[in-house]
């Protein structure tokens, strides 16, 4: 049944395109008939070009900006790779004399690198999954034909309009051990002692929870704050996906007597796959860029349990002036980003979405 | 009959209860998303002793109220705010204009192979900026000054006597370099936003103009640009917040204290040795003010920009 339907649709599309091609041919004939020699001469000139006329015609618009951005994006990445093969460090300009992979072999033997890489991957995965889950939940709540929908949505998205530096400043106060909101809130319910007993790292004597410096909580604290900031983004994407689902799907499931939970689990959420994929790609890239947040929170030396590749790269290159080594860390980060976006862009290309 | 009525009322009551539950959840959401901002606002009006004594989210009492923290933060951040605006506004406008032109050349005019350029541009959105930092510093602080010094002193040597130096340490030069850098990295996302918009513009009008002999430029100038105005609002607003909020590029490219941007100054305030939370919270609110105002006035456009990414 479905096969027949799709075949019918395909034929329809082919018919339609054939018709429109006829129409456009007709138009062209009409203008050719109406216009004089000028057009024909221009046409013959166009036909003799080695490339399409449209390519030449459009080049003044896209080529300068693409060269400008391309120099800064791809030129700089290639340059960065070249630098990672040298052993450039210290003050002064780079020397491009000998090239080898020594910086990469140094990475493999660097404990700090593996720690930062592990933190990066944990941050990436946990942040993205939880952000998607919370964003989906909020989007479903907002999609219940509520009043003041715009107000709710605007407030939920507000943290995303703030700078990482601003949110880091605010969360430093929230997580403050002595007077911060979080610990005061836990004290209200007499929970602080229990959590201290549960999470306090061995060898630490504190009686209050030091969210940002304990190795048991530091990364989780960063992830939680980032979820606070970016779940609004996931909400917006899922809301657009929910609005694109035809209402008949809801009604059909209702007629079948499905409960709300079953309706969403079986009918609605499976249709949000595309939204989830595109949201998770963007969120993962945000997570790779979380440098600003951690830097504003703890400076360029956030400690082993909060260090990610982005902060490590900045510290190695701009604090210790080990430029080549920093470039090698940057290339690893770039490779991670490629692992995320490569398959995504390829699948978008395959589906003709680009 | 009466049974059925009871069932109806029960159903009504249960939906009513679930509506109340729904709104309770939505209000809890507001509390969750706003409490860090709310505590910041409350804390910035408190004295040193008051913010240690009171609950962070409670308003300051009459004895614990002060504007000193706000004044200090404002004085610390004001030069940074001006620098941020000087740097971010031109960068935003340039990115949006170039993004619109690129999207036009790659969408409305179609040619074989353009998808390759589009892929490169979209991938450019997702680049972690760490991968370009060292070359950026090299380019702006070593290569470009070297080239310009050589050029100017060779061509205009009879004036400069070979002593001209590119003013790398001039604060405004550094801001200009930062602005140009942001403009370049903004092009990919602006192009994507405009491209999805141009894909939705119907071909008929453009086809008709083309058959009338309109050039690519006049189609852009007379049809596409006027139609793009709402999308310009979205792009300018989204891109302005992105550029204004950035810290990383400023850290690398601006080292003259006088030309530091707002995020740099706030990071210095937060990371300082003495942590007075009333001052840092006031700093956070002051630094957030431009984007907050833009967001409150143009929230709808911001949401569209976000969704476009």
TrEMBL record, chain A:
Membrane topology (UniProt): Multi-pass membrane protein
PANTHER family: ABC TRANSPORTER PERMEASE PROTEIN
Entry keywords, A to Z: Cell membrane, Membrane, Transmembrane, Transmembrane helix, Transport
Main location class: membrane
Presence of keyword Cell inner membrane: no
Native source organism of the sequence: Haloarcula sebkhae
Family: Belongs to the binding-protein-dependent transport system permease family.
CDD domains in alphabetical order: TM_PBP2
Signal sequence region: none
Protein name in the entry: ABC transporter permease
Protein localization: Cell membrane
One Gene Ontology biological process: transmembrane transport
Matches recorded under PROSITE patterns: ABC_TM1 (PS50928)
TM region(s), chain numbering: 61-82, 121-142, 154-174, 218-242, 263-288, 323-346
ABC transmembrane type-1 domain residues: 117-342
InterPro entries: ABC_transporter_permease, MetI-like, MetI-like_sf
Any single Gene Ontology cellular-component annotation: plasma membrane
UniProtKB/TrEMBL annotation, chain B:
Transmembrane segments: 20-45, 85-107, 113-132, 139-159, 179-198, 219-240, 279-298
Family annotation (PROSITE patterns): ABC_TM1 (PS50928)
Membrane topology per record: Multi-pass membrane protein
InterPro entries xrefs: MetI-like, MetI-like_sf
Keyword Transferase: no
Domain of life: Archaea
Keywords: Membrane, Transmembrane, Transmembrane helix, Transport
Compartments where found: Cell membrane; Membrane
Signal peptide (UniProt feature, chain positions): none
GO BP annotation list: transmembrane transport
GO cellular component, one term: plasma membrane
Keyword Protein biosynthesis attributed: no
Domain ABC transmembrane type-1: 81-298
Family, as annotated: Belongs to the binding-protein-dependent transport system permease family.
Name by which UniProt lists this protein: Sugar ABC transporter permease
Protein's organism: Haloarcula sebkhae
